[in-house]
């Protein structure tokens, strides 16, 4: 059962402090939702956790199973079991989806533990079927010409192939219609187990009707300012963020 701890995390982008002392612990089997207004640093959190070079960690600690994540390069973090589904997945012309996933999976499994090619393709086909992804997608170039919904489903496919220990989903719901949203949520619910913890970042409560969080955290101005259960998300949906800003004395 993984244990992921973020302690007093401070992150700057181009010299400007965006995350200002963020604390969060995610254990295996738990789904944590992070909600918050636009521009509050949610994507910054996701990128910093994966080690994106634009995001400078100026203070704090991040541990996965007692190991210091911040000391690791991005590929080492992936190997340790961190996974990020991005808000804007990039297109990689010239690399097929299947090849990209095989390389990512082999990197995750480590030298000597690679999946045999046939077994890989069989697993990939099974998972694609479950996620309602047309088998031809395996041979298309990564994300090139994919619709928004297809890109998001593809991120979930990568997640289910890689079997991460901590999965971070950054606005996986943005731009999805309700059918695509349900497919993505089903994918998450299928992968869910004690062996994986989820950090689900979203601006809207709607996603949380389908991926039911154990904890909901509100992020404002680079910190978690309030935590609760799924009811907190419903309250935010009904009342917006302004009442909370007023309650907490936050001006933006
Ligand atoms: P959210 O995901 O909550 O909408 P972001 O993390 O994307 O918020 O952005 C938080 C702040 O950091 C914003 O003011 C944004 O302009 C700034 N920021 C984030 N990433 C970058 C970047 N790569 N370059 C410059 N500014 C950035
Ligand atoms: Mg945003
Ligand atoms: Mg964002």
From TrEMBL:
It comes from Alicyclobacillus fodiniaquatilis. InterPro entries: AAA+_ATPase, ABC_transporter-like_ATP-bd, ABC_transporter-like_CS, FeS-cluster_ATPase_SufC, P-loop_NTPase. Signal peptide: none annotated. This is Fe-S cluster assembly ATPase SufC. The keyword Nucleotide-binding applies. PANTHER family: ABC TRANSPORTER I FAMILY MEMBER 6, CHLOROPLASTIC. Pfam families: ABC_tran (PF00005). Residues 4-246 form the ABC transporter domain.
